[in-house]
Design brief:
Blueprint lengths: L17 H10 L1 H5 L9 E5 L6 H11 L7 E5 L2 H7 L7 E5 L12 E7 L10 H9 L2 E12 L5 E10 L2 E11 L27 H18 L5 H12 L6 E2 L2 H5 L2 E4 L8
Parallel strand pairs: 1-2, 1-4, 2-3, 4-5
Antiparallel strand pairs: 5-6, 6-7, 7-9, 8-9
The structure holds S-adenosylmethionine.
The site of S-adenosylmethionine has 24 residues, from strand 2.
GO biological process, one term: methylation
Organism: Archangium lansingense
Keywords: Methyltransferase, Transferase
């Protein structure tokens, strides 16, 4: 355990991170299938899998549909949870005790690291350091995903951080909803990643973003787009004329994803 690691509740469920799996399979296919040189055996590492490794196993199945030989490593701070998970270990899937300083074996390479729903109890000011520690083993071009969802996984917000030659780039923020809770931009506020959760306040860039999105959503509704998926799509299209870096691919908008890549990276 490093000085940053903290004990946390382990609640999780099958399918909770399915929307993230779907996003990664669609948008990060290259990352998941790369197999030249160091990438040949590069793993997906799921940090903080919880009381049961359901989300790790869900993702292993989703990603192996593209890359059948993908090594998957589940990491947990709590030894009894690691012990329980061993029932699901196999030649390509391992479960190890450890924290942000990932328990990799010598020579092991990493393409993707996911840390979902584990920073709620951590201090926001520690998050940048946690990102750096977690992202350190990534191959260049590799991705760290860190964020939160509600309990069923109907609402999700995550940081996407990319390993680039200069270090770890704060590439994007990803928002997703499956519309089962309706739609309004405020839906995402309580599920923001730890470093932004309490910062939706005047003067903060994340507050400006939500104010702009809410105005765009109200305009979309006034223009007759009242159903949640339509209100979402039209709000994002309107928002894109005010905010730089919104990715408005049809697939993203049709499936409830807002991907924001602010020029110069996501603000701190
Ligand atoms: C709420 S569960 C989330 C499970 C799963 N990732 C999900 O999204 O459903 C959080 C888990 O993260 C673990 N955890 C917290 N801090 C950790 C750390 N620094 N390293 C590894 N695991 C950690 C906790 O022990 C807990 O089991």
């Amino acid at each position: 355990m490093t000085s940053l690691d903290k004990k946390t509740r382990g609640r999780t469920s099958h399918g909770r991170l399915r929307a993230l799996d779907v996003y990664l399979v669609h948008q990060e296919r290259e990352l998941l299938v790369r197999s030249e040189g160091d990438w040949a055996r590069a793993a997906f590492v799921d940090v903080g899998f919880g009381e049961h490794p359901w989300t790790t196993l869900d993702s292993a199945e989703a990603f192996r549909a593209l890359h059948p030989g993908l090594p998957v490593v589940g990491v947990e701070l709590e030894a009894p949870r690691v012990e329980t998970a061993q029932a699901h270990a196999d030649a390509l899937t391992s479960f190890r005790q450890g924290g942000f300083d990932l328990p990799l074996v010598p020579g092991e390479r990493v393409r993707l690291i996911r840390a979902m729903n584990l920073l709620r109890g951590y201090r926001p000011e520690d998050v940048p350091g946690i990102h750096q520690t977690l992202g350190a083993p990534l191959l260049e071009g590799g991705l760290l995903v860190e964020g939160s969802t509600d309990t069923p996984g109907a609402v999700l917000v995550a940081h996407l951080l990319r390993r680039v030659p200069e270090g770890l780039s704060r590439e994007a923020l990803l928002f997703h909803t499956d519309f089962s809770r309706g739609f309004a931009p405020v839906l995402f506020r309580d599920w923001l990643p730890r470093d932004f959760r309490r910062r939706v306040k005047p003067g903060e860039p994340i507050h400006t973003f939500f104010a702009d999105w809410t105005a765009a959503w109200q305009e979309a509704r006034e223009a007759g787009h009242g159903e949640p998926p339509e209100a979402f799509r039209h709000s994002v299209l309107r928002l894109a004329s005010r905010v730089e870096g919104l990715v408005t691919d049809v697939w993203l908008l049709d499936n409830g994803y807002l991907l924001w890549k602010p020029p110069g990276g996501v603000f701190r």
